[in-house]
Amino acid sequence: MRGRMALLLSLAMLPAGAIAMQVGLNAVAARQAAYEETLSRRALQSMSVERSTIDEVREMLRVLASSPAMQQIERGDCREWLGSVEERYPYLASIAVSDNVGAVLCSIPAAPPRFQAPHSTARERAMGRDGFAMGYVEYGPLSHEPVLAAMEPIHDRSGRRIGFIGAAIPARNLVGLLDRTRSLYGARAALADATGVIIAQSRPDGAAAPALPSTEQIRDRIGPDPAFVPVRDGAAVIAPLSAPDLYAVMSWPPDQPAWQRYTALGVSLAAPLLIWALAMAAGWFAIEMLVARPLSDLEGAARSYARGEEITETEALENAPDEIRSLRRTMAAMAKTLRGREQRLVEALGEERALLREVHHRVKNNLQMVASLLNIQARGAKDESEAWGLARAHDRVQLLALVHQRIYASGELRELRLDDLIAEITRQLVQGRGAQAKDLRVLTHLSPARADTDHAVPLTFLVGEAISFALDCCLGSEEVGVWLEQDGSGEIRFAVDCSATAGGVPGAGARLIDAFARQLGADIGRDPERPATLWVRVPPAAAQT
């Protein structure tokens, strides 16, 4: 019972444990989301200088592209305009104006005559959008170094695109800006284009500096919103700087040691499990102390009551709930009542047994008196046949008295020992023959057998008639055999054997044997050549009913 109750209790507590664990996991996820949001906000704040620089270049190119002088580039020289721009924006490596096919019309530094600008990612994007675009150029044709190129289309008064104005920021100048960001915000910074290629990155500060995301990680996570990326020895954020062309990448070392993170995660997961286990243990303890143990003691008390013992309240029953204590008191009262009734039944049964024994005793005495009268009558009879008939009547009454005597003497009111009864019947019948049976040998083979008292009388008469006739027929012989046995099913087998071949069963005796056999439902077998030989099989129903 305790095992089943513990299982049911654990299953009942399981939803609460699962909810508590889910709450713990949600708390871990919320802390992680807050950490990612903090890093994203910090990344956007830390890239303010880089963003202002990009916005400044973009605004400069827009203003130049919309100026009247640039709208007439096909007819004049624009180097004078570009010279003033170079002085104002010293961090630019080059600035150039080209037509739609890429022929450079003017530039600083000056390009060779009929110089054709090579295809670049920035030019292709600007042509496709017909608007501002940026891109990484691994080798600038005018600056002769890696640059971040920006392109703005130039339109005439009718809105027709007539060329592009472009500017290039050296990657080394961007590295300086990123180093400043690292020193101010304690992060490793980088710029990447839309393909995930890192254009420039700050120099790592020590061997324990966090890594930057790979090109594939950057390309997979670029978008309009900041994205969190776990990296070696830290965490990174990819934020749009000039979407969709330029992105800022920031890597921070972990905000706490790894063991603290794993400890926090373990506590978040283990605490609900511990609470669930404690709740289940408390419930099991309560059930054990308030239900299981009192019920077990109550069961022991019930067994003791069944054995008729007096049981005092145990400590568990004294501390049990009122319902169980009330049940125990009710059971004690019921046991007391049952004991009283049982005592009265025992007394009534004893009185009944005494009365039955007295009845059997009186019947036995009366039958013995009748037998004595018959015996006196037989001795005074002058006719031999009359004397023989009275002697047989005496034997039959004596047999009936013997049955009642056995019942009275043994005290058994339901069953009798047939082997002892048949031995006594044989002895009395042999003694009743007197001197006539002095040379007669009676061999008995009587195995233990029992029969209920209702069938003892007809069975006794059947056995007595069979033995009596065998003794009458075999008085001149030397031996009479009597057999009795009972098998495991309760069937009784009785036999009388006498080698005498003369005479026959008297008519009254034969009719009595057949009548008693029918009453018992028994089968009778006889030997035609030896009339005194007889065997009987009494079925179990007759012997045990």
Structure overview:
- The structure is a single chain.
- The model has no long low-confidence stretch (mean pLDDT 78).
- The protein is built from 14 helices and 17 strands.
- With 545 residues, the chain is of the alpha+beta class.
List key phrases describing it.
single chain, about 550 residues, alpha+beta, Beta-Lactamase, Heat Shock Protein 90, 5-stranded antiparallel beta sheet, rod-shaped
A few lines on this structure:
By secondary structure, the chain is an alpha+beta fold.
> From the coordinates shown, what is the CATH architecture of the domain at 47-255?
2-Layer Sandwich
Q: Stretches where pLDDT falls below 50 for ≥5 residues? A: none
Strand order of the largest sheet: 2-1-5-4-3
CATH level 1 name of the domain at 47-255: Alpha Beta
Helical residues, percent? 40-55%
* Rg, Å, rounded: 62 Å
Q: Looking at this structure, what is the CATH superfamily of the domain at 47-255?
A: PAS domain
Shape: rod-shaped
Query: Got a strand count?
Result: 17
CATH topology of the domain at 47-255: Beta-Lactamase
Q: Count of DSSP helices? A: 14
Please describe the biggest sheet, giving its number of strands, its sense, and whether it closes into a barrel. 5 strands, antiparallel
Which structural class matches the secondary elements?
A: alpha+beta
Beta-sheet strand percentage?
Answer: 15-25%
Mean pLDDT: 78
Termini, distance in Å? 43 Å
What's the topology here?
Elements (H helix, E strand, L loop, with lengths): L1 H45 L1 H19 L12 H10 L5 E6 L4 E5 L12 H9 L3 E5 L9 E9 L5 E10 H15 L2 E6 L4 E4 L13 H7 L5 E5 L2 E9 L3 E7 L5 H49 L8 H4 L3 H59 L3 H27 L4 E3 H15 L8 E6 L3 E3 H21 L5 E8 L5 E7 L8 H14 L2 E5 L2 E9 L1 H5 L1
Parallel strand pairs: 12-14
Antiparallel strand pairs: 1-2, 1-5, 3-4, 4-5, 6-7, 6-10, 8-9, 9-10, 11-13, 14-15, 15-17, 16-17
Helix pairs in contact: 1-7, 7-9, 9-10, 10-11, 10-12, 11-12, 12-13
